[in-house]
Inverse folding.
């Protein structure tokens, strides 16, 4: 299966992280640590700032204060290249509607240097339940199929840190089952931002935003 | 550690090819670029009524058309990425320099295509034959390089800004004004007017502008794209 090589040495460390928008506090002086094979649920009500925290961890937004380090074998990775080892499935991320599912995966593979083959595209599309639909334009996909394709891209990348924001949004029962099954087979550090208790329960630890 | 990447050239090509394929299927930027140019040229043609234009006036018209056509479309390569949320995918997949030069290359292709289409139409509709094709082609290429280098960076800047509107024009105009002044002078020579004495210096300015703008764009791009 694509992307099942373990990342045994990755660690995310957050120290004294603070972020607020005016009077709305997302987090204040937060400390976190997450390593390979560990999982963390980021929980909180709608609008509490889960997606903001996810963006900060992914390097897509700066915190007001605090330090975030990504490291492999205790060697810190520069923020400018965090994108190499992060996978993200989020409503804030979309794939190219005017390309087919396979073309999107091929684009990611080429531009990201993931070192995968066309056979890997087929395998990962089958894994997420999009087998046979890889050559269709994404604009013809349903919202659930687009969510599955985001997972396909994330799995193909084989990230050391996978961040899921609203992980089962738009997915049907089969899609949800496939996602959790695929995640269970992978060795990575996992962050799940959700307000669904059943999803949060899958993580080993919790972080509550907005306080 | 993550796997070694493919070469920078491969990545730049992947982004260029993706943009070209997307554009071929959607005509997102091309429609804006060519329609604006054709409508403006047609309006100018009717307004002048075939009366003889001076080389200076013709060169002003030409670069006004190219400049505003570029403003109407070149920022779209980044604006579209942000509006459709594919920018997040791109940020988490591609190195910054590959994004910059991939977009730069695609914008350059668009602008050179515009100039190639506009040239014969301009000559016919405004009755202004090119007297010196070497100067004309050199001016078009250096002009496109200068325009694209600046507009690619500013396109990225306005794409991530909350309020876009006329921001692209407002930011681009002062930066591009020196370029346009020199372009108009060298184009005037290509149309058979002006003085050839300062031509070498003009090309030197255009070449230097393109190199400086591209280098500055490449160096500043990560701050615009990631912060």
């Amino acid at each position: 299966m694509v992307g099942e090589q373990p990342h045994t040495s990755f660690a995310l460390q957050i120290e004294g992280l603070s972020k607020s928008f005016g009077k709305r506090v997302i987090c204040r002086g937060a400390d976190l640590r997450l390593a390979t094979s560990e999982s963390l649920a980021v929980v909180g009500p709608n609008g509490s700032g889960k997606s903001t925290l996810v963006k900060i961890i992914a390097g897509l937004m700066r915190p007001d204060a605090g330090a975030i380090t990504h490291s492999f074998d205790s060697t810190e990775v520069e923020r400018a290249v965090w994108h190499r080892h992060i996978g993200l499935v989020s409503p804030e991320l979309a794939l190219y509607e005017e390309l087919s599912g396979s073309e999107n995966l091929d684009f990611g593979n080429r531009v990201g240097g993931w070192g995968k083959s066309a056979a890997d595209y087929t395998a990962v599309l089958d894994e997420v339940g999009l087998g046979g639909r890889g050559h269709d334009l994404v604009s013809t996909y349903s919202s659930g199929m687009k969510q599955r394709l985001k997972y396909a891209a994330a799995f193909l990348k084989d990230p050391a840190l996978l961040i899921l924001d609203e992980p089962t949004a738009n997915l049907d029962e089969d899609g949800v089952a496939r996602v959790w099954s695929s995640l269970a087979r992978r060795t990575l550090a996992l962050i799940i931002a959700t307000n669904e208790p059943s999803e949060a329960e899958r993580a080993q630890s919790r972080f509550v935003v907005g306080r | 550690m993550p796997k070694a990447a493919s070469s920078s050239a491969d990545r730049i090509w992947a982004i260029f090819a993706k943009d070209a394929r997307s554009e071929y299927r959607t005509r997102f930027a091309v429609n804006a670029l060519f329609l604006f140019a054709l409508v403006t040229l047609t309006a100018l043609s009717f307004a002048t009524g075939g009366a003889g234009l001076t080389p200076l006036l013709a060169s002003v018209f030409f670069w006004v058309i190219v400049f505003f056509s570029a403003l109407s479309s070149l920022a779209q390569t980044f604006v579209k990425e942000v509006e459709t949320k594919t920018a997040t995918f791109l940020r988490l997949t591609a190195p910054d320099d590959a994004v910059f030069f991939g977009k730069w290359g695609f914008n350059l292709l668009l602008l050179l295509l515009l100039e190639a289409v506009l040239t014969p139409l301009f000559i016919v509709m405004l009755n202004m034959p090119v007297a010196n094709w070497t100067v004309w082609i050199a001016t078009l290429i250096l002009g496109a390089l200068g325009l694209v280098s600046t507009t690619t960076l500013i396109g990225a800047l306005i794409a991530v800004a909350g309020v876009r509107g006329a921001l692209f024009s407002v930011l681009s105009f002062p930066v591009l004004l020196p370029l346009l002044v020199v372009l108009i002078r060298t184009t005037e020579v290509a149309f058979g007017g002006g003085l050839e004495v300062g031509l070498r210096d003009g090309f030197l300015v255009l070449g230097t502008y393109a190199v400086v703008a591209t280098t500055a764009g490449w160096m500043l791009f990560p701050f615009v794209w990631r912060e």
User: Anything to note?
Assistant: The longest helix of chain B spans residues 96-125. Chain B touches chain A through 31 residues (CB under 8 Å).
